[in-house]
Amino acid sequence: MEGLIGIKAHTIRAWEVRYNLVPPKRTATNIRFYNEEDLRTLLNIVALNENGYKISKIARMDRAVISDLVGQLKNELNPESLQMIGLCKATIAFDEPEFVKVMNTCIVEMGLTKTMDLVIFPFMKKIGMLWQTGSIDPAHEHFASNLIRERIIIEINKVGQPKRSKMKKFLLFLPEAEMHENGLLFARYLLKSRGHDSLYLGLETPYSDLKKVADSYRPDFAFTVLTSLNLGKNVNKIIGKVMDHLNVPLLVAGSLISEFDILVQDRLTPLKNVRDMTDFLEYL
Predict the structure, then answer these.
(1) Which 3 state secondary structure label does DSSP give 172?
(2) Which keywords appear in this protein's UniProt record, sorted alphabetically (predicted)?
């Protein structure tokens, strides 16, 4: 839970002891928990505290006043922080209209690339970790990921195919056991918006199919994304296995690439963040 609202559990407990601020519920076996309304209130409290309000003052307010103050702060809050809070609240409540509204606002104000870099990818990473640790239900992660997926596809379809004299061909795929597709879809958006061609194979592509498809399509580059925490420290082993089945340069992105040391190999280009991806495409 602390990962979702962005503040440590011991800090929340100190607030409870000192100010009786959002006391947790307890199960029949005395396990602490917060319901959806409590989590929304904690998100609002964190927003106020990060913007100059002392906890001692917030503790004297009722929840309606706290909510109203956060609403008044919308023009002063860091935009990315505000949108992150909005996405978290909507995910906790399974509130699709609100989630879509927040995401749409981000894209209108910042564009898809900046939205993915500053809001969506950090949000997805946080939700994935919370799922793995059991802090939220898998349904929360699925809810958010599928709405993000739908919106990226809409943005892909909006892009006309610009004419480019030096168009490159990219084979896009996720290897076996990798099912997190949004990063790969975003790569397809970047490539299309810059006039490159791509063949999209999607998630869990069998290794045995890679060489067959590459021989037929003849890409200039292969591109994959490694995100699943289940892959963990096997990331270099998986990259090696992918390269054993391909004879073209491989671009590999995703949160695991930024978190683990990637072994240097010929034909391999690790892309640790969105800036690395856009820079690579600019220099093609």
Answers:
(1) strand
(2) DNA-binding, Repressor, Transcription, Transcription regulation
Quote the tokens at residue 146: 């599928």
How distant, in Å, are the alpha carbons of 92, 116, 122, 241, 258 from that of 127?
11, 15, 9, 28, 17
pLDDT tens over the chain, length 284 residues: 444 445 556 667 777 777 787 777 777 777 766 676 777 777 778 778 777 788 888 888 888 888 888 777 665 556 677 788 788 888 888 999 999 999 999 999 999 999 999 999 888 876 765 555 455 678 888 899 999 999 999 999 999 876 667 889 999 999 988 888 999 999 999 999 999 999 999 999 999 999 999 999 999 999 999 987 666 668 899 999 999 999 999 999 988 888 788 888 889 999 999 999 999 998 87
Q: In which residue are the tokens 């922080």 written?
A: 81
Left if phi > 0, otherwise alpha if psi is -120 to 50, otherwise beta: which for 152?
Answer: alpha
Of 3.40.50.2300, 3.40.50.720, 3.40.50.280, 3.40.50.1110, which CATH number belongs to 162-282?
Answer: 3.40.50.280
Residue ranges per structural domain of the chain: 1-77, 85-158, 162-282
Architecture category of domain 85-158 in CATH: Orthogonal Bundle (1.10)
